Amino acid sequence: MQINSFEEYQRNYQLSVDQPEEFWARIADNFLWKKKWDKVLSWNFSEPNIKWFEGAKLNITENCLDRHLAENGDKPAIIWEPNDPQKDSITLSYKILHEQVCRFANVLKKNGVKKGDRVCIYMPMVPELAVAVLACARIGAVHSVVFGGFSAKSIADRINDAQCRLVITADGAFRGNKQIQLKEVIDDALIGCPSVEKVIVLTHTRTPVSMLKGRDIWWEDEIKLVDTNCPAEEMDAEDLLFILYTSGSTGKPKGVVHTVGGYMVYAGYTFSNVFNYQPDEVFFCTADIGWITGHSYIVYGPLSQGATTVIFEGIPTYPDASRMWQVVEKHKVNILYTAPTAIRSLMSFGLQPIEGVDLTSLRVLGSVGEPINEEAWHWFDENIGKSKCPIVDTWWQTETGGIMISPIAFVTPTKPSFATLPLPGIQPVLVDEQGNVIEGNDVSGNLCIKFPWPGMLRTTYGDHERCKQTYFSTYDNMYFTGDGCLRDVDGYYRITGRVDDVINVSGHRIGTAEVENAINMHAGVVESAVVGFPHDVKGQGIYAFVIFPNAHGDEDLTRKDILQTVTRVIGAIAKPDKILFVSGLPKTRSGKIMRRILRKIAEGDTTNLGDITTLLDPAVVDEIIEKAKK
Ligand code: WTA
User: Fold this and answer.
1) Which distant-in-sequence residues (6+ apart) come within 8 Å of 623 by Cβ?
2) What molecular function terms (GO) are annotated for this protein (predicted)?
3) Rounded mean pLDDT of 587-616?
4) CA-to-CA distance for 318 and 256, rounded, in angstroms?
């Protein structure tokens, strides 16, 4: 299933368009099925209703674990690098990982978890996180991993939306020189979550935690009570594998749903091809498993291909800015998949942190999460790849399940800051505001996909109508990505950023409406408007315009109060970088906030604000411009 030349890519691409079912059936043949499908694909984008490999039976963990045991049982599946470089790293072979997954799957069963039940996972980046994820998949429970940076309220909202029955967490997490009290956050969250019956707590930081009788149990105690024999539950290809919450234009995050068969095929296929993974290579994706990148390219993609995957608990700058490179040297990493924000942040430390670090093991570099600027691309290429490693700039989304538009390493000629060409099976189109498809090259528009692919979302949990409205209603018969995009003279794609009210802060998706809702919860705030602005390291920063009539005479303190509120409501990742107190917001006569104007002001470009005559009160714009200058 690996593509080895550009000519082969073109042939595969053509086949995937002309005969998609034949194409994907051939790819799916590389996986282990308990029973093959009756039909490869049935679909419509109007409801939407998408089914891949209907009638097929499988368990994804047999593909990620069992099938590697005979020949590769002793091969490292996971290499864990702790936050503290002085502590020992841990290697889990496929055999050991299989054992741990089966054992923990039995713990889940013993605690009442059944096929189809939802389980919330809120854990540090430790091997047990992967074990927990796979154990759910083993017994057919649906995991909902929540990133460790989210607040109690965010967790509670997600738990309630999915009606989770059980939570898996740890006492705490290490992140650089900080400790995060995960269990405490869960305790706060669970005050309002009646569906949760049990909480399994892993000991990690060894900080004191409260353990509620009848509800909270220790991971370490539970695994002693079960054995390691756990047959894999037989799943339908279209059974749910996981829910992952992500931000959109409205205030409420939505639970993107992925199903077992299609997701597995797509994650495995894209992993193997994009990175040109070779047996015995070490793959290091620096994302957190709490995001889709971690789901697909730390856990499911690599393990389905029998790869060795690195789980790194720490951050690139702890204890110093050479840490990420040290991890590459220590574990002889061959493929490094990271985010532009990490590259830009490490760039700012100069070349000294790289000096003397052996990076010769590297063969392929990857980037994900946001547009990579040319400067960062070249720095990565020259200083990390030593101009010898292809850079795969991979564009995709939580909703797409896996990489969509990207170079294939050693196959697709790259171009800085271009995601280049669609992978086989992916049919992108650019569409104008009226919904007309824009043909030809050297054009730009809104990026849509006009044909299904196996890894695509099937629904948004508990609210199918929302899925339809968000992705399939803007344009007829197309999946709308929310991204703007250009196609250059060579037919290469470059993603230019979101065209909706989503901002991308350090590669994290944040809805402006979500942040506004959080700010508005602060006593004294009358109204707020949030926009993104260009930020040197984060890509985009968060700029909040806030109407707060009585800022208690101390604006700085009030700003801090608001940050505290946002941290409480969403989490520290959503804290605005700038808060400007204003007396009014630019609104149209129908009451709509003109974000276009606020974006310009946030960018510091007020020379051409466009037409402001439709504003209810144009004077408010002058006031905001004046205040923003200070
Ligand atoms: C953005 C992350 C430019 C894009 C996998 C998308 C990118 C959003 C790239 C999805 C890239 C992701 N170049 N932009 N290579 N990769 N994006 O759901 O705006 O966290 O819509 O998935 O990130 O973010 P999400």
Assistant:
1) 582, 583, 584
2) acetate-CoA ligase activity; AMP binding; ATP binding
3) 89
4) 33
419 Cβ below 6 A of ligand 1 = yes
- 403 pLDDT higher than 90: yes
| CATH number of the structural domain spanning residue 130 | 3.40.50.980
Domain, as residue range, for 563: 506-629
Let me know if residue 526 belongs to a domain. Answer: yes
Which atom of ligand 1 is nearest to 419's Cα?
15
Tell me, in angstroms, the distance from the centre of ligand 1 to residue 504's CA.
Answer: 8
CB of residue 296 inside a 6 A radius of ligand 1: no
Domain stop point among 184, 207, 233 = 233
- Rounded distance between C-alpha atoms, residue 288 and residue 574, angstroms: 17
Q: How many distinct structural domains can be found in the chain?
A: 2
Residue 212 CB coordination number (10 Å): 10
Q: Give a yes or no: residue 49 inside a domain.
A: no
Residue having the nearest C-alpha atom to atom 1 of ligand 1: 370
- 42: tokens are 């049935």
Q: Is 259 part of a structural domain of the chain? A: no
Confidence of residue 551 (pLDDT cuts 50, 70, 90): low
Where a domain ends, among 233, 260, 287?
Answer: 233
User: Is residue 20 one of the residues assigned to a domain?
Assistant: no
Cα separation, 323 vs 330, in Å, equals: 10
Averaged pLDDT, 110-128? 98
Q: Is the CB of 338 under 6 A from ligand 1?
A: no
CATH of the domain at 617: 3.30.300.30
CB 574 within 8 A of CB 542: yes
- The SS3 call for residue 252 is coil
DSSP 417-459: T--BSBPTT--EEEE-TTS-EE-SSSEEEEEEE-S--TTS--E
For 608-616, what is the mean pLDDT? 83
At 173, which helix (H) or strand (E)? strand 173-175
